[in-house]
Amino acid sequence: MYDIHSRTHAITEAAIHARGLHKSFGGTHVLTGVDLTVPPGTLQALLGPNGSGKTTTVRILTTLLAPDRGTAIVGGHDVTRESAAVRRSIGLTAQQATVDGLLTGRENLELFAGLYHLGRREARRRAAELLERFDLAAAADRRAATYSGGMRRRLDLAASMVAAPRILFLDEPTTGLDPRSRAELWSVIRELLAAGTTILLTTQYLEEADHLADRIAVIHTGRVVADDTPAALKRQVGSERLILRLAHAADLPRAAATLPPGDAAPHLDPDARELTLAVQSPDHLRHTLDLLHRAGIPIAQVELRTPTLDDVFFALTATTPPLTPATP
C-alpha cells in the first residue's frame, strides 16, 4: 500500500530532492523532467553526454538558475523561494576554477571567508585549517598562479568548504587533471564523504563515478534515465559483454545487421574495428559467433568480460533521440 506519510518524510529527510525540473534556452528543451533524490551523507554521481543537462541541473540546485517548471529542495529549503537559505547550506566547485591567481592560497581562502562574513580571526583560523586539510600548507603563501592544476583544484575545493557546508556540488572537478592529481582529489573527496558531507558529483570519467559514488544517475536529453548503485546498473546491461574485433571496419554495419532482431543494439567502434554487445548465456554467445561465421564476416579477436559503466553509459544513451527544439 502506498504510504503518503512515508514518502513525505523521505522527501523532508533527503539532502537533495528534485521533481519534474524543466528548463529551456533559446527555444530548445535542455531539462525535460529531472527527478533526483540524494540521501544525507552519500555521494550521488550524475553522468551524461555533453549537452545532456548535467550542469544545468547543478545550476538550478545551487540557485544559479531558476527552473521553468518543477521543484527542488536542497538542505530542507526550496531553491526558488528560499534561495538565500540554500546558499548558506551548500558549497560549489564549478567546472572553471574560481580562485584568483594573483592572490596566495591563504589570501584566497581568507577572501572567501570574508564573503561568508567570518571575522578576521576566524577567517585566518579557517584558512589555516583548510590549507592543512587539503595538503596546501607548504604552498600557502605562494600565488595561486604558480600552483599546478591539481593544486588549484584542491584550493578551489577548499574555498567551497570555507563555510563548512553540509552539501557540496562538484561539477566535473577533475577534468583536465593528470592521473596522479585526479587520485589525490579522489582521496580528498572520500575524506569529505567520511566526515558526513553530502556530495553531488558530475563527471566525464566513468571510472571516477564507479570508484566514488554510492549511486549513479544517468541523465540524457534532459531527464534521468537510470538511477541506482554502480553494481545494479552494471547488472542491467547483461551478465557479460562480448567484444568482437573484426578484420575489416567496413564489416561493422553488416555484422550489426546480422544479429537477431531481439538483441539490444550493439555499440560499434569503427576506429578499433570493434562490436560490443551484451551476452545473456553461453548459447547466446555460440549463436552470435555462428551467425557471423555464416555471414562470412572475419573476426580477428574475441574478448568476453564483465560489464563496466562504459557499457551502462552506451546502453542508456544510445537509444534516446537528440534534443529537439521546443515548440512555440
UniProtKB/TrEMBL annotation:
Residues 16-246 form the ABC transporter domain. The keyword Membrane applies. The keyword Calcium does not apply. GO terms for cellular component: plasma membrane. It is found in: Cell membrane. Belongs to the ABC transporter superfamily. Drug exporter-1 (DrugE1) (TC 3.A.1.105) family. It comes from Nonomuraea glycinis. This is Daunorubicin resistance protein DrrA family ABC transporter ATP-binding protein. It comes from the Bacteria. Coiled coil: none annotated. SUPFAM superfamilies: P-loop containing nucleoside triphosphate hydrolases. InterPro entries: AAA+_ATPase, ABC_transporter-like_ATP-bd, ABC_transporter-like_CS, ABC_transporter_ATP-binding, DrrA, P-loop_NTPase. The lineage of its organism: Bacteria, Bacillati, Actinomycetota, Actinomycetes, Streptosporangiales. Pfam families: ABC_tran.
